[in-house]
Amino acid sequence: MVLASRTVVALLGQVVVVGSLSTQLKSAQRSQIGGGKRVSSVQQDLVNHDDMEYTARITVGGQELNVVVDTGSYDLLVFSNKCTACGTDGFDSSKSDSFSSGGLIVDHRFGSGTCNSTDAYDDVLLGELVSNHQSFWQVEEANMPVLAKMNFQGVLGVGPPNAAVQKAKDDAMAAKYMHKHDLEQHYAELIEHAESTSSLASSLGMETFSFCLGSAPGSLGTVLWQDSTPEERGDASFITVPVEGEAYWATKLQNVKIGDKQYGTDGSDGGMAIVDTGTSLIAAPAKVVDMVSEMLASLPGLDDECSDVSSLPNIEFNIGDGILSLPPSAYAGKIVGDLASSEVDGLPSLLQKRKSGGCGSTLLKMDIRSEQGDVWVLGMPFFRKYYTTFQLDGATSSRPAAKSISFAQHDGDCRPTTSSFLQLDQNKKHQTFSVDPSMVKVPGWLRAARQTGWLKL
Question: Closest Cα partner for 33 from 402, 403, 395, 401?
Protein backbone atom coordinates (compact mmCIF):
# COMPACT_ATOMS: atom_id res chain seq x y z
CA MET A 1 0.00 0.00 0.00
CA VAL A 2 1.31 3.45 -0.91
CA LEU A 3 0.61 6.17 1.62
CA ALA A 4 0.00 9.72 0.52
CA SER A 5 2.47 12.42 1.41
CA ARG A 6 1.94 14.21 4.69
CA THR A 7 1.40 17.88 5.39
CA VAL A 8 2.32 19.51 8.69
CA VAL A 9 0.39 22.23 10.47
CA ALA A 10 1.03 23.59 13.96
CA LEU A 11 -2.03 23.22 16.14
CA LEU A 12 -2.75 23.11 19.85
CA GLY A 13 -4.47 19.76 19.64
CA GLN A 14 -3.38 16.15 19.77
CA VAL A 15 -3.42 15.57 16.02
CA VAL A 16 -1.14 17.81 13.97
CA VAL A 17 -0.20 15.87 10.83
CA VAL A 18 -2.72 14.41 8.44
CA GLY A 19 -2.42 12.21 5.37
CA SER A 20 -5.00 10.85 2.95
CA LEU A 21 -7.60 8.18 3.46
CA SER A 22 -7.10 5.06 1.39
CA THR A 23 -9.81 3.20 -0.43
CA GLN A 24 -9.47 0.48 2.18
CA LEU A 25 -10.33 2.89 5.00
CA LYS A 26 -13.31 4.31 3.13
CA SER A 27 -14.71 0.85 2.60
CA ALA A 28 -14.25 0.10 6.30
CA GLN A 29 -15.94 3.26 7.55
CA ARG A 30 -18.90 2.37 9.72
CA SER A 31 -20.19 2.85 13.21
CA GLN A 32 -18.76 0.13 15.39
CA ILE A 33 -21.42 0.37 18.07
CA GLY A 34 -22.62 -3.11 18.79
CA GLY A 35 -19.48 -4.63 17.25
CA GLY A 36 -18.35 -5.87 20.65
CA LYS A 37 -19.95 -8.20 23.20
CA ARG A 38 -21.06 -6.36 26.30
CA VAL A 39 -20.44 -7.97 29.69
CA SER A 40 -21.98 -6.59 32.88
CA SER A 41 -18.67 -5.49 34.39
CA VAL A 42 -14.96 -6.31 34.29
CA GLN A 43 -12.47 -5.37 37.00
CA GLN A 44 -8.77 -5.01 36.22
CA ASP A 45 -5.74 -4.34 38.38
CA LEU A 46 -3.63 -1.31 37.57
CA VAL A 47 0.03 -2.25 37.98
CA ASN A 48 2.06 0.38 39.83
CA HIS A 49 5.38 1.49 38.32
CA ASP A 50 7.26 3.59 40.91
CA ASP A 51 4.06 5.47 41.84
CA MET A 52 4.41 7.52 38.63
CA GLU A 53 2.67 5.24 36.16
CA TYR A 54 -0.13 2.67 36.32
CA THR A 55 -0.95 0.20 33.56
CA ALA A 56 -3.79 -2.16 32.66
CA ARG A 57 -3.68 -5.14 30.27
CA ILE A 58 -5.50 -5.38 26.97
CA THR A 59 -5.15 -7.79 24.05
CA VAL A 60 -4.82 -6.54 20.47
CA GLY A 61 -4.74 -9.10 17.66
CA GLY A 62 -4.03 -11.85 20.19
CA GLN A 63 -1.08 -9.98 21.78
CA GLU A 64 -1.17 -8.77 25.39
CA LEU A 65 -0.08 -5.17 25.91
CA ASN A 66 0.31 -2.84 28.88
CA VAL A 67 -1.63 0.39 28.40
CA VAL A 68 -2.09 3.62 30.32
CA VAL A 69 -5.78 4.39 30.93
CA ASP A 70 -6.08 8.08 30.04
CA THR A 71 -9.21 10.18 30.59
CA GLY A 72 -7.56 13.10 28.75
CA SER A 73 -7.45 11.48 25.28
CA TYR A 74 -10.08 9.88 23.10
CA ASP A 75 -8.74 6.89 21.18
CA LEU A 76 -6.57 3.79 21.50
CA LEU A 77 -2.90 4.21 20.55
CA VAL A 78 -0.74 1.10 20.19
CA PHE A 79 3.04 1.20 19.82
CA SER A 80 4.25 -0.93 16.91
CA ASN A 81 7.34 -3.11 17.11
CA LYS A 82 8.47 -1.14 14.04
CA CYS A 83 8.92 1.90 16.26
CA THR A 84 12.55 1.75 17.45
CA ALA A 85 12.03 4.61 19.92
CA CYS A 86 8.92 3.12 21.54
CA GLY A 87 10.59 0.72 23.95
CA THR A 88 10.27 -3.05 23.78
CA ASP A 89 7.54 -5.63 23.19
CA GLY A 90 5.53 -3.51 20.79
CA PHE A 91 2.58 -4.75 18.76
CA ASP A 92 3.54 -6.97 15.81
CA SER A 93 0.79 -6.65 13.19
CA SER A 94 2.29 -9.48 11.11
CA LYS A 95 1.28 -11.95 13.83
CA SER A 96 -2.40 -11.04 13.65
CA ASP A 97 -4.73 -12.57 11.05
CA SER A 98 -7.43 -10.02 11.87
CA PHE A 99 -5.28 -6.88 11.42
CA SER A 100 -5.91 -4.35 8.68
CA SER A 101 -4.68 -0.82 8.10
CA GLY A 102 -5.98 2.28 6.37
CA GLY A 103 -4.18 5.17 4.75
CA LEU A 104 -4.65 7.98 7.26
CA ILE A 105 -1.41 9.26 8.77
CA VAL A 106 -1.31 11.58 11.79
CA ASP A 107 1.11 12.89 14.37
CA HIS A 108 -0.11 12.75 17.95
CA ARG A 109 1.40 15.38 20.21
CA PHE A 110 2.02 14.64 23.87
CA GLY A 111 3.66 16.66 26.60
CA SER A 112 6.94 14.76 26.16
CA GLY A 113 7.05 14.71 22.35
CA THR A 114 5.28 13.48 19.23
CA CYS A 115 4.59 10.16 17.58
CA ASN A 116 3.72 9.28 14.00
CA SER A 117 0.69 6.99 13.66
CA THR A 118 -1.41 5.25 11.04
CA ASP A 119 -5.02 4.17 11.41
CA ALA A 120 -5.51 0.45 11.93
CA TYR A 121 -8.17 -2.14 12.82
CA ASP A 122 -8.00 -5.36 14.83
CA ASP A 123 -9.84 -7.39 17.45
CA VAL A 124 -9.37 -5.92 20.92
CA LEU A 125 -10.08 -7.60 24.26
CA LEU A 126 -10.52 -5.62 27.46
CA GLY A 127 -10.73 -8.33 30.08
CA GLU A 128 -13.76 -10.32 28.91
CA LEU A 129 -15.06 -7.48 26.77
CA VAL A 130 -14.47 -7.98 23.04
CA SER A 131 -14.59 -5.49 20.16
CA ASN A 132 -14.07 -6.91 16.68
CA HIS A 133 -12.45 -4.79 13.98
CA GLN A 134 -11.77 -2.03 16.49
CA SER A 135 -10.32 1.22 15.18
CA PHE A 136 -7.03 2.39 16.75
CA TRP A 137 -3.86 4.29 15.90
CA GLN A 138 -0.66 2.30 15.36
CA VAL A 139 2.43 4.29 16.34
CA GLU A 140 5.32 3.59 13.96
CA GLU A 141 7.71 6.45 14.77
CA ALA A 142 8.21 8.55 17.88
CA ASN A 143 10.25 11.47 19.11
CA MET A 144 9.63 10.88 22.79
CA PRO A 145 12.81 10.08 24.78
CA VAL A 146 10.68 9.47 27.88
CA LEU A 147 9.36 6.26 26.29
CA ALA A 148 12.69 4.59 27.06
CA LYS A 149 11.76 4.73 30.76
CA MET A 150 8.11 3.79 30.40
CA ASN A 151 6.49 0.40 30.95
CA PHE A 152 3.60 0.49 28.50
CA GLN A 153 2.91 -0.29 24.85
CA GLY A 154 -0.18 1.81 24.36
CA VAL A 155 -2.53 4.50 25.59
CA LEU A 156 -6.22 3.71 26.10
CA GLY A 157 -8.04 7.01 25.73
CA VAL A 158 -11.31 7.16 27.67
CA GLY A 159 -11.96 10.88 27.39
CA PRO A 160 -15.44 12.03 26.26
CA PRO A 161 -15.81 10.16 22.93
CA ASN A 162 -17.81 12.91 21.20
CA ALA A 163 -14.94 15.35 21.79
CA ALA A 164 -12.86 13.62 19.10
CA VAL A 165 -15.29 14.75 16.41
CA GLN A 166 -15.53 18.31 17.71
CA LYS A 167 -11.76 18.52 18.04
CA ALA A 168 -11.28 17.46 14.42
CA LYS A 169 -13.74 20.18 13.38
CA ASP A 170 -11.95 22.77 15.52
CA ASP A 171 -8.61 21.84 13.95
CA ALA A 172 -10.14 22.15 10.49
CA MET A 173 -11.46 25.62 11.36
CA ALA A 174 -8.03 26.60 12.69
CA ALA A 175 -6.40 25.54 9.42
CA LYS A 176 -8.99 27.51 7.46
CA TYR A 177 -8.44 30.56 9.66
CA MET A 178 -4.70 30.36 8.95
CA HIS A 179 -5.51 30.19 5.22
CA LYS A 180 -4.08 26.69 4.91
CA HIS A 181 -6.41 25.88 2.03
CA ASP A 182 -4.23 23.00 0.87
CA LEU A 183 -5.13 21.22 4.13
CA GLU A 184 -8.91 21.44 3.81
CA GLN A 185 -9.23 18.02 2.19
CA HIS A 186 -6.94 16.46 4.77
CA TYR A 187 -9.01 17.77 7.64
CA ALA A 188 -12.24 16.79 5.96
CA GLU A 189 -10.88 13.23 5.91
CA LEU A 190 -9.90 13.48 9.56
CA ILE A 191 -13.42 14.60 10.48
CA GLU A 192 -14.83 11.75 8.42
CA HIS A 193 -12.62 9.26 10.27
CA ALA A 194 -13.69 10.59 13.68
CA GLU A 195 -17.36 10.48 12.75
CA SER A 196 -17.28 6.98 11.24
CA THR A 197 -15.27 5.16 13.92
CA SER A 198 -15.88 4.49 17.59
CA SER A 199 -13.71 4.66 20.65
CA LEU A 200 -13.15 1.33 22.37
CA ALA A 201 -15.52 2.29 25.19
CA SER A 202 -18.25 3.16 22.69
CA SER A 203 -17.71 -0.02 20.67
CA LEU A 204 -18.28 -2.05 23.81
CA GLY A 205 -21.48 -0.21 24.67
CA MET A 206 -19.84 1.02 27.86
CA GLU A 207 -21.80 3.54 29.91
CA THR A 208 -19.61 3.81 33.02
CA PHE A 209 -16.14 3.06 34.28
CA SER A 210 -14.43 3.70 37.62
CA PHE A 211 -10.81 4.47 38.40
CA CYS A 212 -8.97 4.28 41.72
CA LEU A 213 -5.37 4.09 43.01
CA GLY A 214 -4.25 2.51 46.27
CA SER A 215 -3.32 5.06 48.92
CA ALA A 216 0.00 3.51 50.00
CA PRO A 217 3.24 3.87 48.00
CA GLY A 218 3.75 0.85 45.74
CA SER A 219 0.13 -0.30 45.93
CA LEU A 220 -2.02 -1.38 43.00
CA GLY A 221 -4.88 0.51 41.44
CA THR A 222 -8.20 -0.66 40.01
CA VAL A 223 -10.27 0.12 36.95
CA LEU A 224 -13.81 -1.27 36.80
CA TRP A 225 -15.38 -1.25 33.34
CA GLN A 226 -19.18 -0.95 33.17
CA ASP A 227 -19.38 -0.18 36.87
CA SER A 228 -22.64 0.38 38.72
CA THR A 229 -23.73 3.98 39.06
CA PRO A 230 -24.08 5.42 42.57
CA GLU A 231 -27.87 5.33 42.06
CA GLU A 232 -27.70 1.61 41.25
CA ARG A 233 -25.50 1.05 44.26
CA GLY A 234 -27.90 2.97 46.49
CA ASP A 235 -24.81 4.49 48.06
CA ALA A 236 -25.27 7.94 49.56
CA SER A 237 -21.54 8.33 50.21
CA PHE A 238 -21.01 9.34 46.57
CA ILE A 239 -21.48 12.87 45.34
CA THR A 240 -22.30 13.23 41.65
CA VAL A 241 -21.63 16.33 39.57
CA PRO A 242 -22.43 17.12 35.93
CA VAL A 243 -19.65 17.38 33.36
CA GLU A 244 -19.07 20.92 32.12
CA GLY A 245 -18.00 21.46 28.52
CA GLU A 246 -17.37 18.78 25.91
CA ALA A 247 -13.63 18.16 25.67
CA TYR A 248 -12.68 16.90 29.15
CA TRP A 249 -14.03 15.23 32.27
CA ALA A 250 -14.42 18.63 33.90
CA THR A 251 -16.72 20.02 36.55
CA LYS A 252 -17.30 23.29 38.38
CA LEU A 253 -15.11 24.14 41.34
CA GLN A 254 -16.67 26.54 43.85
CA ASN A 255 -13.50 27.28 45.80
CA VAL A 256 -10.32 25.79 47.22
CA LYS A 257 -9.03 26.10 50.78
CA ILE A 258 -5.58 25.30 52.17
CA GLY A 259 -5.44 25.81 55.91
CA ASP A 260 -6.94 29.23 56.58
CA LYS A 261 -6.29 30.49 53.05
CA GLN A 262 -9.09 30.35 50.49
CA TYR A 263 -8.79 30.47 46.71
CA GLY A 264 -11.25 30.27 43.89
CA THR A 265 -14.54 32.07 43.56
CA ASP A 266 -14.94 35.67 44.53
CA GLY A 267 -18.61 35.70 43.60
CA SER A 268 -17.94 36.77 40.00
CA ASP A 269 -16.73 33.57 38.40
CA GLY A 270 -15.94 30.06 39.39
CA GLY A 271 -13.17 27.67 38.60
CA MET A 272 -12.94 24.33 36.83
CA ALA A 273 -11.51 21.01 37.94
CA ILE A 274 -10.43 18.55 35.24
CA VAL A 275 -10.29 15.02 36.62
CA ASP A 276 -7.47 13.38 34.67
CA THR A 277 -5.87 9.95 35.06
CA GLY A 278 -3.12 10.88 32.59
CA THR A 279 -1.55 13.66 34.67
CA SER A 280 1.04 12.54 37.24
CA LEU A 281 0.45 15.31 39.78
CA ILE A 282 -2.00 18.04 40.81
CA ALA A 283 -1.87 21.15 38.61
CA ALA A 284 -2.76 24.42 40.32
CA PRO A 285 -2.67 28.19 39.69
CA ALA A 286 0.66 29.92 40.28
CA LYS A 287 -0.50 31.84 43.37
CA VAL A 288 -1.37 28.54 45.07
CA VAL A 289 1.88 26.82 44.10
CA ASP A 290 3.94 29.79 45.30
CA MET A 291 2.13 29.83 48.62
CA VAL A 292 2.69 26.10 49.15
CA SER A 293 6.38 26.40 48.29
CA GLU A 294 6.79 29.25 50.79
CA MET A 295 4.90 27.29 53.44
CA LEU A 296 7.18 24.26 53.00
CA ALA A 297 10.33 26.38 53.04
CA SER A 298 9.30 28.02 56.33
CA LEU A 299 8.19 24.85 58.10
CA PRO A 300 10.62 23.92 60.90
CA GLY A 301 11.66 20.30 61.20
CA LEU A 302 10.73 19.25 57.66
CA ASP A 303 13.55 16.93 56.59
CA ASP A 304 14.67 15.95 53.08
CA GLU A 305 12.75 12.66 53.38
CA CYS A 306 9.41 14.42 53.94
CA SER A 307 9.02 11.89 56.75
CA ASP A 308 6.49 13.94 58.73
CA VAL A 309 4.07 16.27 56.96
CA SER A 310 1.34 15.90 59.58
CA SER A 311 1.57 19.58 60.52
CA LEU A 312 0.63 20.62 56.99
CA PRO A 313 -3.01 21.34 56.14
CA ASN A 314 -5.19 19.42 53.72
CA ILE A 315 -6.35 20.89 50.42
CA GLU A 316 -10.15 21.18 50.43
CA PHE A 317 -12.07 21.37 47.15
CA ASN A 318 -15.67 22.56 47.24
CA ILE A 319 -17.23 20.54 44.40
CA GLY A 320 -20.97 20.02 44.02
CA ASP A 321 -22.59 19.55 47.41
CA GLY A 322 -19.47 18.34 49.19
CA ILE A 323 -15.94 19.04 50.31
CA LEU A 324 -13.29 16.78 48.79
CA SER A 325 -10.06 16.99 50.77
CA LEU A 326 -6.60 15.78 49.83
CA PRO A 327 -3.81 15.11 52.38
CA PRO A 328 -0.41 16.87 52.35
CA SER A 329 1.07 13.91 50.46
CA ALA A 330 -0.92 15.10 47.44
CA TYR A 331 1.15 18.30 47.19
CA ALA A 332 4.41 17.63 49.05
CA GLY A 333 6.90 14.81 48.55
CA LYS A 334 10.48 13.66 48.28
CA ILE A 335 12.15 14.68 45.03
CA VAL A 336 14.33 11.91 43.60
CA GLY A 337 16.14 11.17 40.32
CA ASP A 338 17.35 13.58 37.70
CA LEU A 339 15.97 17.01 37.01
CA ALA A 340 14.00 17.01 33.75
CA SER A 341 14.65 20.40 32.16
CA SER A 342 11.32 20.29 30.36
CA GLU A 343 9.50 20.24 33.70
CA VAL A 344 11.53 22.85 35.60
CA ASP A 345 9.03 25.62 34.85
CA GLY A 346 6.21 23.48 36.19
CA LEU A 347 7.95 22.45 39.41
CA PRO A 348 9.24 25.65 41.04
CA SER A 349 10.64 23.84 44.07
CA LEU A 350 13.00 21.98 41.76
CA LEU A 351 13.97 25.19 40.02
CA GLN A 352 15.04 26.60 43.38
CA LYS A 353 16.93 23.49 44.49
CA ARG A 354 18.70 22.82 41.20
CA LYS A 355 19.74 19.46 42.58
CA SER A 356 18.41 15.98 43.07
CA GLY A 357 16.78 15.13 46.36
CA GLY A 358 14.94 16.93 49.11
CA CYS A 359 11.40 17.59 50.24
CA GLY A 360 9.38 20.06 48.22
CA SER A 361 6.14 21.01 46.56
CA THR A 362 4.96 18.52 43.95
CA LEU A 363 2.28 20.79 42.50
CA LEU A 364 2.47 21.60 38.80
CA LYS A 365 2.44 25.36 38.27
CA MET A 366 -0.20 26.09 35.64
CA ASP A 367 -1.78 29.54 35.19
CA ILE A 368 -4.66 28.52 32.92
CA ARG A 369 -8.04 30.17 32.49
CA SER A 370 -11.23 28.80 30.95
CA GLU A 371 -14.68 30.14 30.16
CA GLN A 372 -15.56 29.44 33.78
CA GLY A 373 -12.47 30.59 35.65
CA ASP A 374 -9.13 29.17 36.78
CA VAL A 375 -8.35 25.58 35.86
CA TRP A 376 -7.11 22.94 38.26
CA VAL A 377 -6.15 19.43 37.14
CA LEU A 378 -6.80 16.64 39.63
CA GLY A 379 -4.25 14.02 38.61
CA MET A 380 -3.04 10.76 40.12
CA PRO A 381 -2.84 11.92 43.79
CA PHE A 382 -6.58 12.59 43.70
CA PHE A 383 -7.41 8.96 42.87
CA ARG A 384 -5.37 7.73 45.85
CA LYS A 385 -8.16 9.00 48.06
CA TYR A 386 -11.27 9.05 45.86
CA TYR A 387 -12.96 6.22 44.00
CA THR A 388 -14.17 8.01 40.86
CA THR A 389 -16.92 6.88 38.48
CA PHE A 390 -17.19 8.39 35.01
CA GLN A 391 -20.58 8.13 33.29
CA LEU A 392 -21.32 8.57 29.58
CA ASP A 393 -24.62 9.87 28.24
CA GLY A 394 -25.93 6.51 27.03
CA ALA A 395 -24.32 4.03 24.66
CA THR A 396 -26.54 4.39 21.60
CA SER A 397 -24.09 6.68 19.80
CA SER A 398 -20.70 5.80 18.37
CA ARG A 399 -19.35 8.94 20.07
CA PRO A 400 -21.45 9.62 23.22
CA ALA A 401 -20.94 12.67 25.41
CA ALA A 402 -19.69 12.74 28.98
CA LYS A 403 -22.55 13.01 31.46
CA SER A 404 -21.35 13.02 35.07
CA ILE A 405 -18.54 12.23 37.52
CA SER A 406 -19.12 10.65 40.94
CA PHE A 407 -16.72 10.61 43.89
CA ALA A 408 -16.52 8.53 47.06
CA GLN A 409 -13.67 8.28 49.53
CA HIS A 410 -12.14 4.79 49.51
CA ASP A 411 -10.54 2.69 52.22
CA GLY A 412 -7.01 2.77 50.78
CA ASP A 413 -7.54 -0.40 48.74
CA CYS A 414 -10.15 1.01 46.34
CA ARG A 415 -13.28 -0.01 48.23
CA PRO A 416 -15.66 2.96 48.55
CA THR A 417 -16.43 3.86 52.15
CA THR A 418 -19.36 5.57 53.81
CA SER A 419 -17.23 8.32 55.34
CA SER A 420 -18.63 11.82 55.18
CA PHE A 421 -17.00 14.24 52.77
CA LEU A 422 -16.84 16.68 55.66
CA GLN A 423 -14.44 14.37 57.47
CA LEU A 424 -11.04 15.86 56.63
CA ASP A 425 -8.79 13.13 58.09
CA GLN A 426 -6.64 15.61 59.98
CA ASN A 427 -5.54 12.89 62.41
CA LYS A 428 -4.76 10.23 59.82
CA LYS A 429 -1.09 9.74 59.01
CA HIS A 430 -0.51 9.73 55.28
CA GLN A 431 2.64 8.28 53.76
CA THR A 432 4.53 10.60 51.44
CA PHE A 433 5.41 9.73 47.88
CA SER A 434 8.64 10.13 45.95
CA VAL A 435 8.51 12.08 42.71
CA ASP A 436 11.02 11.56 39.90
CA PRO A 437 10.76 14.66 37.65
CA SER A 438 11.92 12.69 34.61
CA MET A 439 8.87 10.41 35.00
CA VAL A 440 6.31 13.20 35.39
CA LYS A 441 3.65 13.06 32.65
CA VAL A 442 2.14 16.37 31.54
CA PRO A 443 -0.37 15.80 28.69
CA GLY A 444 0.06 17.68 25.44
CA TRP A 445 -3.24 19.52 25.86
CA LEU A 446 -2.17 20.73 29.31
CA ARG A 447 1.28 21.84 28.15
CA ALA A 448 -0.29 23.74 25.24
CA ALA A 449 -2.78 25.41 27.59
CA ARG A 450 0.08 26.39 29.90
CA GLN A 451 1.78 28.16 27.00
CA THR A 452 -1.29 30.12 25.95
CA GLY A 453 -2.89 30.53 29.37
CA TRP A 454 -6.27 29.40 27.98
CA LEU A 455 -8.18 26.14 27.73
CA LYS A 456 -11.41 25.62 25.81
CA LEU A 457 -13.61 23.14 27.65
Answer: 395
- Cβ neighbourhood burial of 231 (10 Å; 0-12, 13-18, 19+): exposed
Q: Please list the rounded mean pLDDT of every run of 10 residues in the chain (457 residues).
A: 30 35 32 44 95 96 97 94 88 97 82 84 94 96 79 94 84 73 75 89 92 97 95 88 95 92 61 95 92 86 84 93 94 78 56 62 91 94 98 78 96 84 49 84 87 91
d(CA 191, CA 394): 22
Whether domain 10-203 has CATH 2.40.440.10: the reply is no
**Strands 322-326 and 315-319: what pairing?**
antiparallel
**What is the distance between the alpha carbons of residues 108 and 86, in angstroms, rounded to a whole number?**
14
**What is the H or E stretch that residue 408 is in?**
strand 402-409
Helices within 302-355 (DSSP H only): 348-353
Tell me if domain 10-203 and domain 230-452 are identical in fold. yes
Contact 387, 414 (CB under 8 A): yes
The b/e string for 39-71 (b: 16+ C-beta within 10 A; e otherwise) is: eebbebebebbbbbbbbbebebbebebbbbbbb
Alpha-carbon distance of 195 to 197, in angstroms, equals 6
pLDDT of residue 221: 98
What are the extents of the domains in the chain? 10-203, 230-452
CA distance 65 to 62: 10
CA 220 to chain centre: 18
Please report the pLDDT score of residue 117 as a whole number. Answer: 92
Question: What is the number of alpha carbons within 13 Å of residue 273 lying toward its C-beta?
Answer: 24
Q: What fold is seen in the domain 230-452?
A: Cathepsin D, subunit A; domain 1 (2.40.70)
Give 177's Cβ-side CA count (13 Å radius).
8
Looking at 202-247, which runs of residues are DSSP E strands?
208-213, 221-225, 239-242
Contact 133, 151 (CB under 8 A): no
CB 192 within 8 A of CB 24: no
Q: How far is CA 310 from the centre of its chain?
A: 29
CA–CA gap between residue 123 and residue 132 (Å, rounded): 4
Residue 183 near residue 18 (C-beta atoms within 8 A): yes
